């Protein structure tokens, strides 16, 4: 269908459609809120599946619509899930957009879809909408998958390979996304991340939750070829700027945060004294690793707030919670942004998921990088060697991070030789991140441009 003239010229109506996991919902919902704050009318699509029971976004500025996907419950994470999601959800998305076009006085003009769902571009084009792919991981990571798609990086790689790619630091095998360093581990997910580049040249925009200053070189390299636009950090402004009161929380939690407990506990601790530990919404540790981490936290003799999701709690050593209750608090989910801005938090032991990385960096919290899988090893490389806002744990020959290493890293980041430089760098990045989304900042301008463009045609 040709993009047709609308009788509601001047309205910027946008549909935003994330892949239904927390690490994708958060940045895309925040982006949706930014669009709404600039006058766009936004419909945010949620998908019911195992992880996303019917959801409500507590925001008056954007409208939400659910696409039913109960079939996904049975096949979550498998190739079957990806196939079902594509075949069933693409039809339901098309129906939803068709309905909006026929019934709304403000029909949509653009579809911003998760880059994990490249087929959504076909739906956008079918109805004459602008199509914008939203990348929820760093451009540096995505560029590695781009090279796989192009054949300029070939896998599998030899054990001690050093990878040199345009406008990227030299990467050792342990700095590469896990799907690349071990192609046998998650072939379905590897295919999914590479497929993001199957039709990306046909998209009208390529958005990414990052900012130009953070990934300058790779962004220069990519933007000389494609319509790349940085729109991050996609973090509610209240956390970046305490003066803004009306934009708290991302707004849609798949897990229930133990907010009061965490904040009251942190309130009782000294400034900069707490180690915050979290591995995000998906990663799971082995029982052996969990034990070493628990013992390392204990040995550090520091206060710690550790997020252990309900499904992981059975791996905790017995009596650990009781034995460490004077120094530690274990919760099943935290209000992470409130934790990271709390004065009591001194460092963040993180799995380096892209959201956690951007959140800590934008809020000035030094990191202990403990990457688990997917894009996290590459994020860890940038945290330590490029932005210099953290240190990385070392594994032993069995691939385990031992208790002594955990203890060493906590001491190092809190009071070691590098700690002052890391704190200074963290403060520097915090300012740059805020400037990027402040009015007239590099990311803010890109969002303005997008809203202006879809308002005009
Ligand atoms: C996944 C991938 O694992 C990650 O590497 C990728 O970059 C994005 O998708 P996830 O593992 O959940 O995400 O990690 P992350 O990207 O850090 O996202 C987790 C989100 O949940 C963050 O926004 C964080 O603030 C939030 N969170 C996490 C909480 O609100 N409370 C918690 O206790 C833990």
TrEMBL record:
Domain Glycosyltransferase N-terminal: from-to ranges: 13-50
EC number: 2.4.1.-
InterPro entries per record: Glyco_transf_N, UDP_glucos_trans, UDP_glycos_trans_CS
Residue ranges that the Swiss-Prot or TrEMBL entry lists as coiled coil: none
Enzyme class: transferase
Keywords recorded for this protein, A-Z: Glycosyltransferase, Transferase
GO function term, MF aspect, one: quercetin 3-O-glucosyltransferase activity
Domain of life: Eukaryota
Protein family (similarity comment): Belongs to the UDP-glycosyltransferase family.
PANTHER family linked: GLUCOSYL/GLUCURONOSYL TRANSFERASES (PTHR11926), UDP-GLYCOSYLTRANSFERASE 74E1-RELATED (PTHR11926:SF1560)
Listed name of the protein: Glycosyltransferase
Gene: LOC111279653
């Amino acid at each position: 269908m040709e993009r047709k003239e609308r009788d509601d010229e001047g309205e910027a109506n946008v549909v935003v459609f994330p892949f239904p996991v927390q690490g994708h919902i958060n940045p895309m919902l925040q982006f949706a809120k930014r669009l709404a704050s600039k006058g766009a009318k936004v419909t945010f699509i949620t998908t019911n599946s195992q992880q996303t029971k019917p959801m409500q976004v507590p925001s008056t500025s954007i409208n939400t619509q659910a696409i039913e996907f109960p079939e996904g419950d049975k096949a979550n994470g498998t190739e079957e899930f990806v196939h079902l999601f594509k075949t069933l959800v693409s039809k339901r998305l098309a129906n939803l957009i068709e309905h909006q076009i026929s019934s709304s006085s403000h029909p949509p003009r653009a579809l911003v879809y998760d880059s994990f769902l490249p087929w959504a571009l076909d739906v956008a084009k079918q109805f004459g909408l602008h199509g914008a792919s939203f990348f929820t991981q760093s451009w540096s990571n995505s560029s590695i998958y781009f090279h796989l798609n192009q054949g300029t990086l070939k896998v599998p790689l030899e054990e001690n390979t050093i990878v040199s790619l345009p406008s990227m630091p030299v990467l050792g095998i342990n700095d590469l996304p896990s799907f690349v360093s071990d192609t046998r581990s998650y072939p379905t997910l590897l295919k999914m991340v590479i497929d993001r580049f199957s039709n990306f040249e046909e998209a009208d925009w390529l958005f990414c939750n990052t900012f130009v200053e953070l990934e300058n070189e790779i962004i220069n390299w990519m933007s000389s070829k494609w319509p790349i636009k940085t729109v991050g950090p996609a973090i509610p402004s209240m956390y970046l700027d305490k003066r803004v009161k009306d934009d708290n929380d991302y707004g849609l939690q798949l897990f229930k945060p133990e907010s009061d407990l965490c904040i009251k506990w942190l309130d009782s601790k000294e400034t900069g004294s707490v180690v915050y530990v979290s591995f995000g919404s998906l990663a799971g540790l082995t029982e052996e690793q969990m034990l070493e981490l628990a013992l390392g936290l204990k040995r550090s003799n520091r206060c710690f707030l550790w997020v252990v999701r309900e499904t992981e709690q059975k791996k905790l050593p017995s009596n650990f919670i009781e034995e460490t209750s004077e120094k530690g608090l274990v919760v099943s989910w935290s209000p992470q942004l409130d934790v990271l801005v709390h004065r009591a938090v001194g460092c963040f032991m993180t799995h380096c998921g892209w959201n956690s990385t951007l959140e800590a960096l934008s809020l000035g919290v030094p990191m202990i990088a403990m990457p688990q899988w997917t894009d996290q090893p590459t994020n860890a490389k940038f945290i330590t060697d490029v932005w210099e806002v953290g240190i990385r744990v070392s594994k032993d020959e069995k691939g385990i991070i031992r208790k002594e290493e955990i203890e060493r890293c906590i001491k190092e980041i809190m009071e070691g030789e590098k700690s002052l430089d890391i704190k200074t760098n963290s403060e520097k990045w915090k300012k740059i991140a805020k400037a990027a989304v402040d009015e007239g900042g590099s990311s803010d301008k890109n969002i303005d441009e997008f809203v202006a463009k879809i308002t005009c045609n």
